[in-house]
């Protein structure tokens, strides 16, 4: 067992998809969350949509780059194709208003880089309905 991991969360088995084309960022976020969640690295939306048929996620974590390419329509598409899961966007900065716009457009939460394990876990817990 890892230090700081709550057993109740670990056995609750909430499923998270980390959707990002950047392999290093996917691996880092998966590492931060895997002790308390069933966390899967999704290299593409197609991968996530295919896996969601058998493994619907409770939370999708998406990169700013993906949202910028796909636009605000991505949020509705994710909810439809991933069984209504919550959506968390990882943003590069809060300076340009992108994070606020994501929340207005339908994201359930935004995290600003640099990411820390504690803050990432806390934000995920809130979105998953944990106290």
UniProtKB/TrEMBL annotation:
CDD domains: REC (cd00156). It comes from the Bacteria. Residues 15-128 form the Response regulatory domain. GO terms for biological process: phosphorelay signal transduction system. Pfam families: Response_reg. Keywords: Phosphoprotein, Transcription, Transcription regulation. InterPro entries: Bact_response_regulator, CheY-like_superfamily, Sig_transdc_resp-reg_receiver. The keyword Transcription applies. This is Response regulator.
